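Example record

Each entry pairs one chain with its bound ligand, S-adenosylmethionine.
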Amino acid sequence: MALDELQVADTLARPLRDLRISVTDRCQFRCTYCMPREVFGRDFAFLPREQLLTFEELARIARIFAGLGVRKLRLTGGEPLLRRDLDTLVAMLARIGGIEDIALTTNGALLARNATALAAAGLRRVTVSLDSLDDAVFMALNDAAFPVARVLEAIDAAAAAGLAPVKVNMVVKRGVNDHSILPMAARFRHTGHVLRFIEYMDVGTTNGWRLDDVVPAAEIIAQVGGRWPLEPTTPNYHGEVAARYRYRDGGGEIGVIASVTQPFCRGCTRSRLSADGQLYTCLFSAAGHDMRGPLRAGATDQQLNELVTGIWARRADRYSEQRTRQTSRIKPKPKVEMSRIGG
Ligand code: SAM
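Structure tokens for the complex follow.
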């Protein structure tokens, strides 16, 4: 049967195209907007190893999803490169029929030493997170004394391994790193890499989010465009999360991810698998659907297929859109499990 015949659509006619796989809930950074140390401190109970899906289980789930129309996989976390031998998983995923693209989102700390093996295994693209070029600002944000230079080295190593252009994710928080917008733009112009500015999101009660902390994408575009004129460009594909802009002088392109001010639920074709096998159809879903239980209880491919089809067919969430309309009224805020954020 042709792959296309099995595709599913949700209640808003959105097809299932992407699967973000969190391979671990652990991270060596304690970014204040993501895994703040007050919450993810010494005593925080991360998942024990046996609760993580194995590479074989992940590959099996990915194969089920590919059969339902998924074409893109993104590995994320936590910090995905903390999962040992990640290139082995990439190679397993790359062999799945229908998968056209495998990407990785990483903080870059372990990327330089792994880039060649990952590219050889079939990784196609990498997104590296970097919030400032200023060590003091970056270290205050990552709260792990991790220097900017090591992330820049990682980006170079990824490019040298054939993973160029690299996407660089910068979360912008007002009064914290918004003065880093222009230096970051200057650094990545004419490099071929694509800097993406991300509006600071509310991820539940853990990061103390306030609307005042968000620098709207329109303001970021006005700031960068005021210095180097920009023009909008077309999306690379349906459902792309970043709005793309091109420097008029040929300096390359940037993106903005306006999850707060211009949510993109209508084009959302993404599902997310947490490290312990919970399937979420939205970053902000209150609850996931357990895949690990049935998987370990001996479910057949057909049963897993029906499970995912049923979950996706019932999907009706438009959480970001609703939140944007009601931001000041939503209380209490739903808690997002951070390992589900994947850039
Ligand atoms: N550890 C990896 C990394 O640092 O890229 C992957 C996981 S991280 C959760 C994925 C992306 O989510 C990063 O680019 C990060 O900056 C972004 N992110 C985390 N918390 C965010 C927030 N509150 N608002 C917007 N983006 C956020």
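The first strand starts at residue 18 and ends at 22.
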